[in-house]
Amino acid sequence: MSAVPADALHGAAPAAEGRHAAGPAGLGPRVRLWPSLVAVYRAQLSRARVARIPLLFVATFQSIGIMILMRGVVDGGGEARAVVAGSAVLVVAFVALNLLAQYFGQLRASGGLDHYATLPVPPAAVVLGAAGAYASFTAPGTVVTAVVGCLLFGLPMTHLWVLLAVIPLAGAALAGLGAALGLLAPRPELATLLGQLGMSAALLLGVLPPERMPQVVRLARDLLPSTYGVEAFARTFGGRPDWGYVLGDLAVCAVVGVISLAVATWAYRRAAVR
């Protein structure tokens, strides 16, 4: 049995008193949003990459199939523009709204939120990172759907570059809504149901020409975030697009996206503490 010298004890006492006098140790630097967002985005992107091929195939094939069916009903004009624009944005809705609602619903039910709660990551970074990772897979399918639709209905491809703004803005609005549905649903089955209902609404209200809808349905269409992305894209098929209206629709998408992502962040905090 070893003995500790008395001098060592006397020497340690002043050191301990000095530490107590200095107060508690300071906290580390505050975690910034952008580095956390990039880290979560990369992690989610690597996980979702496994399912990217069936994801892109199903979403794109579904939208192209809808356009082929509508080709026998719609000949051209404004109705054709609505069908092509709505089918292209539907690819975004399938991933950002439907699949993201399922993902967050399963994450909440399996206790995955507890894992993120232990990490020094802001809630906004978790929501934005997951939404961005899932929405990243929509760009190729959206472009392919738009090109096929233009060829199918004889529409010009001059302004397809506007998809560079439509995809992220409509995707942000729908991704925030999908994440909020998944986080607020009490069970994962209900989150899946809500996500599918939201995608069905984007299908019916976005692809069908608004001229053939009753007034009540048009009002419901105006409440859907993806509607303004569809309208912005459809306006560019005209001979001389009114860019003021296009920018206005994109601005509405941006505002709705900020609001929906803020709601999703609040829903994440609410679900994480339970």
Please describe what this structure looks like.
The protein has helices at 6-22, 33-48, 52-71, 77-109, 112-117, 123-136, 138-153, 163-184, 188-207, 215-223, 226-235, 243-272. The N and C termini lie far apart (50 Å). 78% of the residues lie in helices and 0% in strands. Helix 2 (33-48) crosses helix 6, helix 4 (77-109) packs across helix 6 (123-136) and helix 11 (226-235) runs antiparallel to helix 12. It contains twelve helices and no strands. The protein is mostly helical.
Please give a quick description of this structure.
The chain is mainly α.
| Span of the ends, CA to CA | 50 Å
Q: What is the chains' assembly state?
A: single chain
Runs in which pLDDT lies below 50 for 5 or more consecutive residues are 6-13, 15-29
Percent range of helical residues: over 70%
Strand fraction: under 5%
The SS-based structural class is mainly alpha
How many runs of DSSP E, i.e. beta strands? 0
Order of helix and strand elements from N to C terminus: HHHHHHHHHHHH
Number of helices: 12
Q: Looking at the structure, what is the overall shape? A: elongated
Largest sheet, if any?
A: none
Radius of gyration over C-alpha positions, nearest whole angstrom: 25 Å
The averaged pLDDT comes out at 81
